[in-house]
Amino acid sequence: MSYQADLVRRSPVVLRPDSRRVIARPFLPGHELPSQGISRADSVVQRLVALPEMDVEKTLAATLAAHAGRHADLLASFREHYELVAHRVPSGAGISSDRADLIGAYLTHEYAIEAAALFNPSIAAHPDQSGLEPGEIRFIMTARAVGEGHVSSVEFRTGTLAAHDVVRLDEARTHLTTGRMTQSPMSTEFLREALDEDGDAVTAQSVLGRLPEQFTAPQLEAVLASSELDSPRRSGPDGLLDRIRRMAASTYELTFPTTSDLSERVIFPRTEAESHGIEDARLVRFTDDDGSIRYYATYTAYDGSGIAPHLLSTTDFETFSMRPQLGLAAKNKGMALFPRRIGGSYWSLSRWDRESISVASSVDALRWGQPVTVLRPTQPWELIQLGGCSSPLETTEGWIVITHGVGPMRTYGLGAVLLDLDDPTLVLGALTEPLMTAAPDERDGYVPNVLYSCGGLIQDETIVLPYGCSDSSIRFAFIDLPGLLSRLLADPGTVPASER
User: Fold this and answer.
1) Span of 17-31, 386-400, 477-491 with lowest mean pLDDT
2) Beta bridge partner(s), residue 375
3) Cβ(175)–Cβ(349) under 8 Å?
4) What is the DSSP secondary structure assignment for residue 171, as one 8-state letter?
5) What rounded mean pLDDT belongs to the chain?
6) Pairing relation of β-strands 186-187 and 166-169?
7) Which end of the chain, C or N, has fewer beta carbons within 10 A?
C-alpha cells in the first residue's frame, strides 16, 4: 500500500506515556461480607476507628512522606474521600482530624492516567501568542491518555512551532488535578428533544411538565420523587428515569485552579455516560461571526457499552463546559466542528453510519440536523471504514479534511479530502492513496498498525499534524500544503456523485 511520501516530513520528536503522572482517586471497597452483614467499607472504617491514636499519627505521617510529593494537595483528597464515608463512622466516636485524614488515605488510590497508552492528539493555536519570534506559533495540544481498566481521559500539553519543522514541547508538570465539578442547569426543551429521539417524550410528560424551563439536579430529583414514573419498572438500569438522570448529569462544568499549569489539568470521566472513558477530543479554535474566540472539542463519552458524542467548550482552559449532543449526526464517533460558521450555522463532520464521512449543520452546536454523506469508502486502504480525523482546515481553495481509512489487517492510513468553502457537502477532490501509513518503527504498540490524528493546524505553507502511533506514542508530521492542494485539485472527478 503506497502513500504520498513526497508530501510528508516526520519530526524526530516522540511523546511517550509516563506512568509517573498520577491522580488521587477514591478507592471504595465494595464487596459485601455476607457473614457479618456489612460492606467492606464499613469494616475498614470500623478497624480505623479502633486503631490506637499513636498508630494513626505514625501511619498518616508515613503515608504523606511516601506520597504527598507526587500530588499538589494530597491531604485535600484525603478529606474529600473521607466525606464519602463519614456517615459510616459511629456517632460519638470522637474522630480526630488525623484519624479522618487517615480514613481518607485508606480510601484513596493513585491512578496512572497514561500508564497504558498515550495517543490521538489534536492541536490548536494557544490563546497567548506573545513573545514569539516571527513565524512561530504557540500551541495547545490535547491527548487521549489511557490507564488501568482502559479508562480514557483528556490531557493537555503546550509548546511552540518554529521554522524548519521545529517542535518544542514544554515540560509537563506532574502535580495533576482533575478540577472541581459543578452541575449546570439543563433546558427542559433539550431534555424533551433527547427523550423524543427514543420515543419517550410523551411517556415522560408527567416529569417534563413539572420542570421549570431551566432545571437543576435537585429540582429534577424532587419532580422524579413525586412522579408516577418512579416505579421499579421504569427505574432499572435501562429505564426511563435512569436515562433522564443520566442526560441531566451530562451537563456540567469543570473548574481548575488558576495557579495550576495547563499540563497539570486532566479531564477525567465524571458522569455515568463517561464512566469508561472520554475519548478522542478534537480541539478546534472557533472564530464566531462577531470575531470572538472560543475553543471547542467534540469527544466520545463511553459508558462501557454505549457511546455518545459530547461537546466541551472553554475560553480560558480553566473552566470547561460539558454538554451532550443530539441528532442523527451525533449518533456515533467522528464528529469534528468546522472552525467557523458557514451561512450562519455551525457545521460538523460526522460518521453517524460508522463507515462514511458526512457533514451536518446546527443552530447551537448541540442539536444537529440530517447528515449528508459526502464520501464513502471506495479505495482498498479504506474499505472497512472511512472517517474524518480532525476539524477541517480552511484554505483559499477549500476545507482540507484529514481522514482515516481502515484496510486489511486493521491497518489505518491517513488520507485527505477537499470540501467547498461555502457548501461543505460538495467534494472538490480526494486522495486515492493514503497520505500517511505507519512507518516500520510506528506500527508496534498497544494497538498495532494504527496511525491516527484528532487535529492539526496550518503554519505558513505547512500542515502540522500530531498523530498517534499504534495507540502508544505521539509524533508530529509536516505536510506540504501547496503540494497537497495541487494533488487534491488535480482530478476534480475523483469522487463521482454516485459514490458520495
Assistant:
1) 17-31
2) 357
3) no
4) P
5) 92
6) unpaired
7) N
Entry pTM: 0.93
Q: Cα dihedral angle (77, 83, 85, 90), rounded to 10 degrees? A: 130
**For residues 309 and 300, is the Cβ–Cβ distance under 8 A?**
yes
Please give the pLDDT value at position 493.
44
Question: Average pLDDT for residues 215-223, to the nearest whole number?
Answer: 89
How deeply is 37 buried, as exposed, middle or buried, from its count of CB atoms within 10 A (0-12, 13-18, 19+)?
A: exposed
Distance between CA atoms of residues 128 and 140, nearest Å: 10
The position carrying cell 495547545 is: 140
Point out the least confidently predicted range of 64-73, 141-150, 236-245, 456-465: 236-245
Q: At a CB cut-off of 8 Å and minimum separation 6, what does 94 contact?
A: none
How buried is residue 209: exposed, middle or buried, by Cβ count under 10 Å (0-12/13-18/19+)?
Answer: exposed
Contacts of 361 (CB under 8 A, 6+ apart): 342, 343, 345, 346, 347, 348, 368, 369
DSSP state of 265: B
Pairing state of beta strands 214-215 and 186-187?
Answer: antiparallel
Q: Residue 425 corresponds to which cell in the numbers above?
A: 457537502
Q: Is the dihedral of CA 383, 387, 390, 393 positive or negative?
A: positive
What pLDDT shows up at residue 2?
60
- Can you give the pLDDT at residue 225? 83
List, in sequence order, every residue forming a beta bridge with 161; answer none if it has no partner. Answer: 137, 167
Between the alpha carbon of residue 47 and those of residues 86, 90, 130, 254, the distances in Å are: 14, 12, 56, 35
C-alpha to C-alpha distance for 298 and 319, rounded to whole angstroms: 16
